Amino acid sequence: MHLLAKTFVKTGHLRIREDSIRSNKTLFHDRAVTNKSVIPLRATCFSAIGTPLPHIEQAACIYLDYNGTTPIFPEVAEAMRPFLVQHGNPSSSHKFGRECNMAVQKARQQVASLINCHPHEVYFTSCGTESDNWAIVGTVMAARRRSNAPSFMAHVVTSQVEHPAVLECLKHLQQQGLATYTAIPVDHTGTVDPLEVEAAIISSTVLVTIMHSNNEVGTIQPISEVAAVVKGLRGDSNGDLNRQQQGTGSSILFHTDAAQSLGKVQVDVRALDVDMATIVGHKFGAPKGVAALYIRDGVEISSFFLGGGQEGGRRAGTENVLLLAGFGRAAELAVQEREALTEHMQRLRDDLQDQLCRALPQEAYLVNGPSSPSQRLPNTLSISIKGLDSPRLLAVLADELAATAGAACHVPGYTHISSVLAAMDVPVEYAAGTLRLSVGRHTTQEEVDAAVGLILREIAAQGLPLRLPSLTA
Ligand SMILES: Cc1ncc(COP(=O)(O)O)c(C=O)c1O
Predict the structure, then answer these.
(1) How far apart, in whole angstroms, are the C-alpha atoms of residue 138 and residue 155?
(2) Which residue has the higher pLDDT, 401 or 249?
(3) Among 68, 111, 130, 355, which has the minimal tally of Cβ within 10 Å of its Cβ?
């Protein structure tokens, strides 16, 4: 019997026939590829939203960690396949180079369409961490260069719930004596108040960096409101950044880390009015190790990578054509499937939440993040269960359910909860029992049902009360 089906039977939560899972699977069949410049494909996929991936079926481990990373979507793998063998340096003018260069430019166009900017405003990088670091260090170093005072101490405003790619970078700059920063607090839903941003800005502030959405709890930040604050303070209603940046050195740039948002909700950099945005491929179906930084026309920041003239001379290094082909295709899919995908994820996430909440006594849990759907990522459920040892639960289920906890470490007498939950003031007895469950394009209803059964079984095994104990019988 299919292992997933066995799980259902074992948990007794939902009776499901093996063939109902099989009938919903991704279909593969052989097809020859006519284009002579690419290798023949052994298989072509007919994958769609809500179809399980073939290798997931084999693994029989339910994947609810889409915020950690997504699988490479079958269509994306297919777009990359030719470049496993097709070689050529995109900077070379011969046929091999030109073909690779065309693939890079196609990917740039596809990513630009996803975020609504010009292709030349998209700069490819190796990961989200690089994009975040570049936006921050590049802005600080450029401001220091522009200010004629060698002792100029740049200041950055951020929030307490940012990813370590932002917070650790800022800590480092502060330790090196290159910048100071203010991390503003958030409310109990994890939301930043634009007025707090305004209050934190001082005369030496050169950058505000606030994430578009949070990776742990899914809170979507009021980015256009923060942009309005920043723009109001720098007084450039005509958006003439060059003039501002070259003037006193006191202009303020606004960066948003949109790593978790792309492929889940719309991110339109023009409508949001941001100067820079981080985009990360492996959060929406592309492989790991490829990302981008959107830099608005006219914004000047220093470069990290010096060498050849790639990426408009701002980020040297031969482009990774293979990964970029996948990144571009994933961006294109995200545009094509935008509404259907959001609807699919939200339906499953809401169902996951409803099933867990219905089974737990009301005072036993907290759902983290805003309750309004427009203020929370449609795929993310962060639930904190009082008295639960969530790392232990996940360790017991490690071969059956892939998810993450909100507590970094939990030993008797010492619980270190995540900085995001701490900033949101989630009481420690709840925070230590946090599960982050994130669904995605290939999650199925059957997986959600099975995951609920497994989680409830382990909650009961830890001696915690359930409203419907028969679920785990
Ligand atoms: C919000 C956010 N920013 C940045 C990153 C870093 O991206 P990468 O792992 O590609 O460096 C992540 C990855 O989890 C993230 O969730």
Answers:
(1) 13
(2) 401
(3) 68
